[in-house]
Amino acid sequence: MREPHQTSRETLAGSLLLAHPAMKDPNFRRSVVLMSSHNAEGAMGVVLNRPMGKRLGELSGDFALGALASVPLFHGGPVQTEQLVLAAWQTRSDGFRLHFGIDPDKAEQLLGEEGTHVRGFLGYSGWSAGQLENEMRLRTWVVADVPEDLLTQAQDETLWRTVLGREGAEWRLLAGEPDDPELN
Known about the structure:
Layout lengths: L15 E4 L12 E8 L2 E6 L3 E5 H4 L12 E4 L3 E14 L2 E6 L3 H8 L4 E13 L2 H7 L3 E4 L12 H9 L3 H7 L9
Parallel strand pairs: 5-8
Antiparallel strand pairs: 1-2, 1-9, 2-3, 3-8, 4-5, 6-7, 6-8
Helix pairs in contact: 4-5
């Protein structure tokens, strides 16, 4: 199996963490986490493939009539699940750009720019100092680059299968395994 390329990176910020197919933790099982920061003090990101089926306007009256009312909401992770984290992605000629933890005014401004997607996350995924590094040693995660077509893919469990499958033939086989092998 092709070895994931996590060991050569100093920081995982700006990359994706894909839950290893054997991970059973319900917070991260088959998750795709976009990493916004990673340093000696810890790491932070949001789960991209846990849609809530709601829009920001349904969350709070503050957003009900504004430009952000139609922004989709996702479960961002198990930490501070009542906290709203706004993020924007821009696909530009000079590459992918992430704006993380932005205020509503900035989100509204970015929403008006071409090639920009804004999302709301309730909660986030966080690791204390050394915790993520330990998980990486235990091969809990597979590190992947952010694909250009990330936001055009389904934003549910199929996103995990798609991105993990791009890491090589053996990962593709593991990603396609059913939950219950008897159903195979």
